[in-house]
Known about the structure:
Blueprint: H1 2-14, H2 17-27, H3 32-66, H4 70-98, H5 100-119, H6 121-125, H7 144-159, H8 162-167, H9 169-176, H10 180-205, H11 207-233, H12 238-258, H13 262-270, H14 273-304, H15 306-327, H16 336-343
Amino acid sequence: MERESMEEGLINKFMSKDDIKINDVASSSVTPLLLFSAGLSGLAAFSNGCAFGYTSAAEAGIMEDLNLSIAQFSLFGSLLNFGGMFGAISSGKIADLMGRKLTMLLMDVSLIIGWSAIIFAQDSTTHHQLSEPRFMEMFEKKYARSLIVVIGTLILLPLGGGQALVFYASLIFKKAGASVIAGTTAYAIIQIPVCAMGALLLDRTGTHAVLLVSLISACLGSFLAALTFVLQDLNQWKELTSTLVLIFVLATLFSLAVGGSVPWVLMGEMLPINIKGFAGSLGTFSSMFVGWIVNYVFNFLLEWSPSGTLFIIASFSGLTILFVAKMIPETKGRTLEEIEASMLT
């Protein structure tokens, strides 16, 4: 017994720290990290199941979208087994050489590449059929209306002072004698739900209606704010006008937020795919350039006359309303192909 105790003591003495850690881990309970790792490993089986069942429900759509014959689709459907044969032969050896962790990483990368190839297969084909886009092509007569609608909207909206009102709202509130903290806090709190409401309205009523309502409300708000500043300059109802300026400016900001995403939606809907890249870049550049000019001069205009500045904003909003009503068609319930055909001149 004494000899066995001595041997056990020697074994414990010469055990490495790694061995002790391994024994501690082996005797420990299940940890959150272990469960998380096991769950991630199980996702590989989920992806495998999706791959095996993929063609079951998608056969008709795949054949139609990619214009595949029965023979071509049969080859596509059988490739999973073909690849599985090589995977079964090589997986064991790869695991021995690279280790299980790197082998699983290699498997995940392969899965991502495979699914990505399926996702972008059609677009890679909508790409080879199109001619190489040229910068000057977007200025052809048939694309004139699309270009005018998109770039015109992206230029006119900044002239309506949307960005400038956001950037310098606190200065406007201060000049009106209103509470800067109350105004900026109210805008920050309500901005997110207002933008969400605008996105929901786009689906229900369409881009044309949302943009018109947004602009009409913004024009009315800025016009009333300008009138209120005029009354304030006449020293009429000082406390009341301060509150009204805050309300009308906030109403203008909220109205513009409702339709704020419409120009970028129009860019996707109105521009044909072969000029979308160049025209989209030109439209974005034009919007940013005009916005920079407006934001730069806005403070100087406020120093000149707050009421005059807001009247200018209301005027540009009115001009944008006329442009939208005349030039932008309603796109609700229409496919991109139908919209594109109606825009070609």
